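Before the break, one more example. Copy the sequence into your notebook; we will annotate it together after we see the structure.
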Amino acid sequence: MRTCQNCRTAVTRPPGRMRTMLISPTTSGRPPACSVTGYSHLLRKHFHTVNLSISLILIAWFINMLRSPVERAGIFACNKHDLQPDLWREVLSRHSEPLLRKISMDKTEVLPKLREDFRMQNKSVFILGASGETGRVLLKEILEQSLFSKVTLIGRRKLTFHEEAYKNVSQEVVDFEKLDDYVSAFQGHDVGFCCLGTTRNKAGAEGFVRVDRDYVLKSAELAKAGGCKHFNLLSSVGADKSSNFLCLQIKGEVEARVEELKFDRYSVFRPAVLLCDRQEFRPGEWLLIKFFGSLPKSWASGYSVSVETVVRAMLNNAVRPSSEKMELLDNTAIHNLGKADSSL
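Here is what the structure looks like once it is written out:
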């Protein structure tokens, strides 16, 4: 036992390499002069302040992690026309390959010109799943932009349209359980969009696998054999064939097996929670939509995306020339590409 010569604090110093000091503060109120005792005094005096500081740092870190990597780097503070290529390269070099799709339309690639050049090629397109939320919006946008000379819907039933704009839309009714009998429906298309999908709650586990995997894979095979050059697949964020979750596992497996078909161009879109007004009620999805709708856009955009934005990203990507065989567009890339032109 000894006493600090300056603050008169009783200090016990047990032997050993780690000398832990047990302090009994006096009532003198004078600040200690010895460094070791001083640290103990400060910690005891400012204990609550230190706790508060640590809490604020953790909160700030959590909020920052809610943002996307590019947003955390400060990119969204810049105007899309003022982005510096060197800055983009620095940011993108620190993240995965899908982030390459985050770059907005290049200054030399003006969308109206790209669309006009695309129209001049008189390409044909087919849509799988046009009765769904994404497929329905995709069809409407394709017709409004007049991008294709021929539009064909492939589905299990014929859809009814009353608007004049849909009068030239062709429809092929097929039995997805016997697609080999409908080879002709997949022939002669340059571009294909696959928006097929269901849910496990609606179709059961077996039904989900049959629709999201078997129907999609067989349709892709027939499309490839029929001459389709560019196949677009609507997948999901987190798709991974090694996932423990059935939905993500099937989505990941489909992505990989369609890639093996070796299309001239293969584009995969992985949106997060789709924001839309569904005709069918899905309680879980409804709660998520309400939750993300209440968040600031800068936060919600990292975990959700509107169907309209997904569709615009699909079409903006389709009209852009690309030498890549396989393109993987994540949720942030979809946001950037879907908002590349405010006139959409």
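Residues 17-28, 68-108 have pLDDT under 50 and may be disordered. The longest strand covers residues 150-155. Try to locate both features in your own notes.
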